[in-house]
Specification:
45% of the residues lie in helices and 16% in strands. The chain has helices at 5-30, 37-49, 63-72, 90-93, 127-130, 134-139, 174-177, 191-200, 216-228, 233-247, 266-282, 290-301, 309-313, 318-328; strands at residues 52-56, 78-82, 94-99, 104-109, 116-120, 141-144, 147-150, 156-161, 180-185, 260-262, 306-307. Strands 2-5-8-1-9 form a five-stranded parallel sheet. It has a two-stranded antiparallel ribbon with strand order 3-4. A two-stranded antiparallel sheet has the order 6-7.
């Protein structure tokens, strides 16, 4: 059944009603976080689209603070896990504890059993520990011994990592990185923003505290509204074309074939559609535009495009590849 203009208008009105909750959420987070508007907006995209988020940046850019503020502004269970080189998988998912009194084992659940989980400095721990998150992130369940436990809804992992060139870091395995819907790069604040940070974080005033402004019900209702947002067939074709261009650039006459070792997986197409819908939601619209796709594409594709040795020799990154694709693939 074709979608009419009236249908899209009704969805738009529904979107605007539910967006009010997230507008309050943003305002509350801005009481603590100065600037970083794109970071805050993309974090809401992950929350709305039910996609895990990876934040990368040098220490001191408020990555952990931003995630913690988002979690504390939602009335739900929040856990923070500090990743260190001596962390064990059982420290994350939990373990079985022997009870000598009756000779039985009792499951003690780990901090992964929460709605919002902050995996802080995730690449400080070795691959075995990082991989402990795989089942939880993908299957939304955890296996301890011979028992499997479903995780509560909503469930969202927000991880921070330092650039991999830094001392004492371990690159995340490709399978682990692909579980994250978004990889957000956190940059330095501007001069004016840094001055504002200096004034706001003065010791005698104390750091502003975040209040709970929405609950999990508002998040789940907004996700249902997200499914109603209209995506035109031409926009869907544009999404598939963008992803396919990272795998077969020669088919689109893109001069970057030598830069790409592996292109993006079909998971990228799914996340691009969800992310574009979330961008439309945050724009107060009941329909997706190609610009919504272009705005979220770098954050979804940068960690799914693996560059070749030739690209590294020319100092080209996956961001350069994605930018080239977005600049040269025709927009509907």
């Amino acid at each position: 059944m074709p979608v009419t203009h009236s249908d899209v208008q009704q969805v738009g009105e529904l979107v605007r009603r539910h967006y009010e909750h997230f507008d309050r959420l943003l305002a509350e987070i801005r009481r603590v976080i100065v600037g970083q508007e794109q970071l805050l907006k993309k974090m809401l995209v992950g929350l709305l689209a039910d996609g895990h988020i990876l934040l990368e940046g040098v220490p001191g850019l408020a990555k952990t603070t931003a995630v913690a503020c988002l979690a504390r502004a939602i009335r739900t269970k929040f856990q923070r896990i500090q990743f260190t080189p001596d962390l064990l998988p059982a420290d994350i998912v939990g373990t079985q504890v022997f009870q000598p009194r009756d000779g039985t084992f009792v499951v003690r659940k780990g901090p992964i059993f929460a709605n919002l989980v902050l995996a802080d400095e995730i690449n400080r721990a070795p691959a075995k520990v990082q991989s402990a998150l795989l089942e939880a992130m993908q299957e939304r369940q955890v296996t301890i011994g011979d028992q499997t436990f479903p995780l509560d809804t909503p469930f969202l992992v927000m991880a921070t990592q330092n650039p991999i060139e830094q001392e004492g870091t371990y690159p995340l395995p490709e399978a682990q990185v692909d579980r994250f819907m978004l990889k957000l790069l956190v940059d330095y604040p501007s001069r004016a923003e840094e001055r504002q940070i200096l004034d706001r974080m003065a010791p005698q005033r104390g750091i502003p505290q975040v209040s709970e402004v929405i609950g999990p019900n508002e998040v789940m209702e907004a996700r249902l509204v997200l499914d109603e947002i209209y995506v035109d067939d031409r926009v869907k074709d544009y999404i598939v074309t963008l992803v396919h261009a990272t795998r077969a650039p020669r088919e689109f006459d893109l001069a970057i074939a030598d830069w790409i070792e592996y292109g993006a997986s079909p998971r990228a197409s799914i996340y691009l559609t969800r992310g574009a819908r979330a961008m439309a939601f945050l724009g107060g619209r009941g329909y997706v535009t190609p610009q919504d796709v272009k705005d979220i594409a770098p954050d979804i594709l940068r960690h799914r495009v693996i560059v070749s040795y030739e690209a590294e020799a020319e100092e080209k990154t996956s961001d350069d590849v994605v930018r080239h694709v977005l600049d040269h693939v025709p927009v509907p």
